[in-house]
Specification:
Length: 293
């Protein structure tokens, strides 16, 4: 009987909604870089890379157990690039490399023929060195692409052809940042994420390195009975370090409709920010005007 009472008491505590302080402690920044890669067998070539800066929320695996283990719920990376566009991208990179090679030869000729080392000469020499490094990097990148997307020998001119075995993937490297109890910004790296290329954004769970959950953060939980019927919601917006808000966060209220739309101001409704009912039940995360669950 005592064990049953203890178990029931534990479940009741776990089912309680989050307090205002816990709402503020649940959110974090998710920064990183997302690259679109072309893969064929063991060969991998990077096509494009973009930086990511969004929010996320610490989340438990099970509602009835403290089971965060460094899990952060955020938004998945996406890209509009399609496989059919890869040969054209390779052609553009090849043309760019030709222009860079021509520019490098012209700069080398100028530096050799210029007899006076003055301020203008030094500036051009610095620019030439920077352009030379960019050209070498572009040449290596194009060489990697040619192993997967070789030149079509049947076409007129120098055009690339996509291999039938090649595919596009998204590779993301993230770093999670949060404010501790003394309002200092901390960070931890995450395990790399590799997903198929998609243009649709969806919720994504990333894991911190070694499943590290910082001391002092609050992990939200999805209760089995849900909380989607509530119309009044709040979201947590992290603010810069020079602000004096508790845990550098602002709580903003709004309304939520069953069709996954909300009326939160865009300034405060940051992508990846957590959404709660006004009583502290976790609902989902923000993507544009939607609340993804």
């Amino acid at each position: 009987m005592l064990l049953c009472l203890i178990g029931m008491g534990w479940l009741i505590v776990r089912a309680m909604p989050a307090s205002e302080t816990e709402l503020r402690r649940s959110t974090c920044y998710v920064d990183g870089q997302v690259c679109v890669c072309l893969v064929s067998g063991k060969d991998t070539a990077v096509l494009t890379c973009d930086s990511v800066h969004q929010q996320g929320v610490w989340i438990n695996r099970h509602w009835w157990l403290a089971s965060c283990d460094g899990r952060v719920l955020t938004l998945s990376p996406s890209s509009e690039l399609r496989a059919a566009e890869v040969p054209a991208l390779c052609d553009s990179l090849s043309s760019l490399l030709n222009r860079k090679e021509t520019e490098r030869k012209e700069l080398i000729y100028y530096l050799r023929s210029h007899g006076v080392i003055d301020e203008g000469y030094t500036q051009i020499a610095t620019y030439a060195n920077r352009q030379s490094k960019m050209t070498d990097s572009l040449k290596i990148r194009l060489k990697e692409l040619q192993r997967i997307c070789p030149i079509d020998s049947n076409s007129t001119g120098k055009h690339f052809k996509l291999s039938k075995k090649s595919r596009l993937i998204l590779k993301a490297d993230y770093c999670v940042k949060w404010y501790n109890t003394t309002n200092k910004l901390k960070h931890v790296t995450c395990d790399p994420i590799v997903t198929p290329l998609t243009a649709k954004v969806s919720p994504l769970i990333i894991h911190t390195h070694r499943s590290f959950k910082p001391w002092g953060v609050y992990a939200v939980r999805n209760v089995p009975w849900g909380a989607a019927e509530h119309r009044k919601i709040v979201t947590v917006r992290l603010v810069p370090t020079e602000q004096s808000a508790p845990f550098h966060s602002i709580i903003v209220s709004g309304k939520y409709w069953q069709g996954h739309n909300h009326d939160l101001p865009r300034l405060f409704a940051i992508d990846g920010a957590p959404v709660f009912t006004k009583h502290g039940r976790f609902i989902g995360i923000i993507h544009g005007k939607e609340v993804l669950q």
